Amino acid sequence: MPSAAEIPALLTSFGITTAAPHRREDATVWDLELDGNVRRGLRVTLIHDARSGGALMVWAHLAPPLGDGLRAAYRRLLQWNDRFPFAKFAIAEDGRPTLSVELRAVDATPEQVRDALARVLLIADALVSETAEWIWIGGKVPPDPGGERRNRPLLAGAGDLAERLEG
What we know:
Oligomer: single chain
Shape: globular
Number of helices: 5
Strand order of the largest sheet: 1-2-3-4-6-5
Helix content: 25-40%
């Protein structure tokens, strides 16, 4: 398992820039902003809990808090839990839909960390049209502003993961 001290270099190798981590209880936490092929600026949190039995978790808010359509949204999240193995969809306390990938910290390898981060981005990309109404006013995906996307090595290193996302 990569140690908390090794994570920044690992993130850099994936083309991810990050500020210094912060501590939350017994975990070290990095707040990231990642670009997928479609979805840009996805806010992702990488949580490293090195305690015995701890986890390494990649966690992302997919959209702002859900309003009146909560029941339909919840049903959609449950369907996505079936559709995408190795990922979990939920609703945070503040009503925001979330997506997470969890690794057993003691066994996590740098490749698994890379794949977990890439999995979150690729799933967000795959669901961009289905989540557009939650994210953007009018439910319309904004035009691509062009320019270089951040963290290209992350997605490039994930190989054929995009083809293997769905169960």
